[in-house]
Every structure is written in structure tokens, then in C-alpha cells.
Amino acid sequence: MLDVVRLRVLLAVARRGSLTAAAKELHYSQPSVSHHLARLEAETGAKLIQRAGRGIRLTEAGRLLADRAADIVGRLDAAAEELASHVGLRSGRVRLAAFPSALGTFIPEAATRLGRAHPGLLLHLTETEPPEALKLLRAGRVDVAVMFRYDDTAPEENGIQMVHLLDDPSYLIRPGPQGERTGHSDHAELAEHAEAAWIAGCDRCRLHLLDICAKAGFEPRITFTSDDIVAVQALVAAGMGITVLPGLALRAHLHPGVSATPIPGSTRHVLAAVYGDPPHPPATEALLSALRESL
């Protein structure tokens, strides 16, 4: 049976890269950290760390165990949070990870609703893109991950439950002072921009851009990549390229010097991801309710 305390020590060493820094993080003495690691190596029968110059690094076995330890310790911490939440919602915390345009649109309203309904419940927010948010969820470091996926996005792993929040259409963003335009941009219109410079976003958005351009018969010439929607729209307005952005991004910020034309059939699905099957802890359910009511 692996000792959880020793797994926490291994994780601290993996994060910090030295025994001294790990000891400082854990408020242990350095000999105590060395002792826990030695005992963990004895328990596993594997060498977990090795010297690297003045520091140390994990062996292949150490990296494998550290990856598994992150999941184990995270789920144990989450279980402790869930148990505490059953005492009631008058105190405690709930943790949410979300992507930037969600944080810039409906999540503040959800936070307000949650605070009004449960004044003693503290909401912790983390800004991150979907793949990282799911890692945090799997490791038990957040309770809910607001994320998005496209129809062509690879399915998420088992154990993750998705709660649908909204469908978010995509828009072709070009220079022009028109603001949001009516009408639609079809594949033929996209193909008219086959020779244009394109600006891509996060990895998941970039893959979607490549997919819709491929359906229009060309590969976009991507000259710049940024997930900063303010910077991207400013570059488009300056004639530096064109891009595709989702509706939430335009709700959060719409530059007066760009036009936005809906792209039929190009929609991302915004979801709240939670770990495990319902019923979920009361604090998690309260947050999910607040998210749904904010839309």
C-alpha cells in the first residue's frame, strides 16, 4: 500500500525540481523529504529520483508514479471537499476553471447568482483552455470545468460528465467598420480568402479553423497565433489578416473596425464538465444551477 504522504512529497519534488524547494513548500526539513523518498523507493522497489548536476530529476519510473500520484492525491482532496460540502452550503468553497470568453460573458453573472443564493460559499476561478481545464478536473483541483468542443473534437475520457450550457456560432472576422453583419458566410465565400493571411487562436480553435477551411477547399496561411481576442480583432482591423471567432468572444469584445459574418454549420458547444456520475456534491450542483441560470 502506497503512503499518501510520501506521494505528496514526490509530487512536490516533481514540481520544484529539488529537495530543498520541496521541503520549503511542504514545511518539512530536507532530511525528512529525503527519508520519505527513500521509503517510497523501498515500497515500490523502483529508483524514483537521480542526481542531475546540483539538482535532481525524476527517473522514468518516478515520472510515471508522479503522474498517477497527481490523480490519486487530487481525487482524495476532492473527496475531502465533497464530504465537507455535505455539512451544508453555509461555508466552504467550490472551484471553477473556464476559458477566457466564458469568464468575460456569462460566468460573472453566474458568480453573482451563486453568491446571492449561498453567501458563505467561496468561488475560486481559474482561467485556462479546455484541455488544461479537464486535466485540473481529473486531478481533483477543480470541481467544474467550463469548456467547449466542436463536432470534430476528439471525445473526452471516461468518467467525465458533460452538462450542455449553450451552442456558440462561429463568425468570419474581416476588416470593416460595419460591426456584426447579417447574412451568412458559406464555404464559397471562405474560399475567396484562400490567399489571405489568417490569424489562429488556441490549439482547439486552430484545429477547427483548419477543418472549416479544408471543407472550403484550401489550407489557410496562418501568419499569427493568439488567444487574446482583443489583440486578434485589433490586428484584423489593421489589415493584418482575417480570422474566425465564436459568438461569446464577440459578446466579450467587438472591435468597431471589424465585420462579423455568421458561418453556417460552424458551432462550438459550451459545456460544464464534472467528474463522476450524479448526484454531485451540493456545492457543485449549486454552481451548475448558477451557470444554467446565467444564460
Question: Strand-residue fraction?
Answer: 25-35%
Round the mean pLDDT to the nearest integer and report it.
88
Instruction: State the separation between the terminal residues, measured CA to CA.
Output: 47 Å
- The arrangement of helices and strands along the chain is HHHEEHEHHEHEEEHEHEHEHEH
Shape: globular
How many individual helices?
12
What does the largest sheet look like? 9 strands, mixed
Secondary-structure map:
Blueprint (H helix, E strand, L loop, with lengths): L3 H13 L2 H8 L3 H15 L4 E4 L2 E4 L1 H26 L7 E6 L1 H4 L3 H11 L4 E6 L2 H9 L5 E6 L10 E16 L3 E2 L6 H5 L5 E4 L2 H13 L5 E5 L3 H9 L4 E5 H6 L5 E18 L6 H12 L2
Parallel strand pairs: 3-4, 3-5, 7-11, 8-9, 8-10
Antiparallel strand pairs: 1-2, 5-11, 6-10, 6-11
General description of the model:
It is a single chain. The mean pLDDT is 88. Helix 6 (107-117) crosses helix 12 (282-293). The protein is of the alpha/beta class. 38% of the residues are buried. It has 12 helices and 11 strands. Strands 3, 4, 5, 6, 7, 8, 9, 10 and 11 form a 9-stranded mixed beta sheet that branches. A two-stranded antiparallel sheet has the order 1-2.
Key descriptive features of the protein:
globular, 12 helices, alpha/beta, 295 residues, 26% strand
Short description:
With 295 residues, the protein is α/β, with parallel strands linked by helices. The protein has helices spanning 4-16, 19-26, 30-44, 60-85, 100-103, 107-117, 130-138, 187-191, 203-215, 229-237, 247-252, 282-293, and strands spanning 49-52, 55-58, 93-98, 122-127, 144-149, 160-175, 179-180, 197-200, 221-225, 242-246, 258-275.
